[in-house]
Design brief:
Shape: elongated
Oligomer: single chain
Number of domains: 1
Largest sheet: none
Number of strands: 0
Helix content: 40-55%
Structural class: mainly alpha
Radius of gyration: 7 Å
Strand content: under 5%
Length: 25
């Protein structure tokens, strides 16, 4: 799992939460 998401994926991460194993913090 990565501790960060690509900038374009930030919005997607907010919607899918940790569905893709991405974390904003």
């Amino acid at each position: 799992l990565r501790n960060y998401c690509p900038l374009p994926s930030v919005v997607v991460n907010l919607i899918l939460n940790c569905a893709q194993g991405c974390w904003l913090l």
